[in-house]
Design a protein that fits this description.
Length: 450
């Protein structure tokens, strides 16, 4: 199939009722296909980057809707192809009818992510920028949005291209020395390779460290609410959720399994798990719930360990203090609205889940644990996704092998193999040498119409 002559269409707005829906077309026949059903200005003659008022007609010339049609001509479009966006009134029936009308022999339904895939294949964006488009769509906090925008704007691409440019000069010099040893510049080439390798590794190391610490911005913080029965774990979940997600009663052991909820706290997304109260019991169902609670302590990125400030600590709670001491945790003393009885010598926060006291302090501590050095770092290069981060690590490992080979005075042609591998791994981040299967799989995750 000739890619540039293949025209696609899809609905680009979310399903459901709304003020406006957009049907998008891209390809060589996009303008003529839209114009065939448009009553108004001749779209084939309008200037690029204009929006045109008229009516959209069915095949029998019956008016479907009053519309505004944007016309953008190649190559200065999102896909670098002719692009048309039909803005109609929102609603499933009207939008679907506009789409089905433009589909035909010259226009087919787009695959998920195909508009962005075309932008990549036509050279408008690279693979890292394409991935960041989806990150931007899925962002839930200001920091997630800022991180995605930096990559969409090319921060990662520029860094990768600059590093590869440094490396390709060394590769060229090394290959000349291997092919023409009579030039006798191998020692200079080794020195240059060592300098460039150390420089690239230093830059990658800072990016890798920053990216690893920033992964919680993308994946969310798996957070376990742990404690004895009736200390207020479910009330804490409700306070954080600001709703009535969990059942709260005075009966110990109400929560017998785990309850999960995703919430946003400041700049972080927390995957909250409210666990069964840990205590001695002969009830089989409660025992299974308590086993899950212990499992969650090990799996969680953050433990919120809750105590009842109106009573003394139990032996089981003392064991929880010990079991969580090597985890990222925040110790919470609940029921500060009652007369204090519990005396804790470790750092903790006093809250009342009943009336919301202590919420701001808890929020600040959570953010401090995970965002220290991230939130205010405007100079950081990126927050890479898992694929990009893996390729950065592979590059770093190959460069480490290069330095080892140079130190052990291995033949230059063998050292160059690792150096080339590093260069190729960097290229895969932006889509150079990326297998078709990977590209297709990545874009299949996009929504239809993007």
């Amino acid at each position: 199939m000739n890619f540039m002559n293949d025209t696609i269409a899809a609905i680009s707005t979310p399903p459901g009722l709304g003020a406006i829906s957009i049907v998008r077309l891209s390809g060589a026949d996009a303008i003529t296909a839209a114009n065939a059903h448009f009553k108004g200005t001749d779209l084939t003659k309008v200037a690029s980057n204009t929006i045109n008022y008229g009516h959209f007609l069915a095949d029998d010339q019956e008016i479907i809707d009053e519309v505004m049609v944007s016309v953008m001509r190649a190559p200065k479009t999102y896909t670098k192809e002719d692009l048309v966006e039909i803005n109609c009134h929102g609603g499933p029936y009207v939008t679907q009818k506009v789409l089905s009308t433009v589909l035909g022999s010259a226009v087919r339904l787009a695959e998920p992510g195909e508009f962005t895939k075309r932008a990549f294949l036509n050279g408008r964006i690279d693979l890292s920028e394409a991935e960041a488009v989806m990150d931007l769509i899925n962002s839930k906090t200001n920091l997630q949005e800022r991180a995605a925008v930096k990559i969409v704007d090319g921060a990662l691409s520029k860094m990768v291209k600059d590093l590869r440019e440094e490396m390709i000069k060394v590769i060229a010099n090394a290959e000349v020395n291997i092919d023409y040893p009579e030039y006798d510049e191998e020692e200079l080439t080794r020195e240059k390779m060592a300098l460039v390798t150390k420089s690239v590794r230093q830059k990658l190391r800072s990016v890798i460290d920053y990216s690893e610490s920033g992964q919680v911005l993308k994946t969310g913080v798996k957070t376990a609410i742990i404690g004895a029965p009736n200390v207020g774990k479910s009330s804490l979940l409700n306070m954080l959720y600001r709703g009535e997600r969990a059942i709260v009663t005075e009966i110990p052991g109400t929560t017998r399994d785990t309850l999960e909820e995703e919430i946003t706290i400041g700049q972080l997304v927390l995957d909250l798990v409210d666990t069964a109260g840990i205590h001695q019991t002969e009830d089989l169902i409660e025992k299974l719930g308590i086993e899950k609670s212990h499992e969650m302590i090990q799996l969680a990125d953050l433990v919120l360990l809750v105590f009842d400030g109106s009573r003394e600590m139990t032996p089981e709670e003392q064991e929880l203090l010990e079991a969580t001491k090597n985890k990222k945790r925040i110790i919470i003393v609940n029921k500060s609205d009652l007369a204090p009885v519990l005396d804790l010598s470790v750092d903790h926060i006093n809250i009342s889940a009943l009336n919301g006291t202590g919420f701001n302090e808890l929020k600040e501590q959570i953010e401090s644990l995970f965002l220290s050095g991230i939130e205010n770092s405007s100079s950081a290069t990126l927050l890479a996704n898992a694929r990009q981060l893996g390729l950065l690590k592979s590059t770093n490992e190959s460069l480490t092998s290069v330095l080892t080979g140079l130190a052990e005075e291995m033949p230059l042609d063998l050292v160059l193999i690792d150096f080339n591998e590093a260069w190729k791994s960097l290229g895969e981040i932006i889509g150079e040498n990326a297998p078709d299967e990977l590209v297709n799989e990545l874009f299949s995750r996009f929504c239809l119409g993007k």
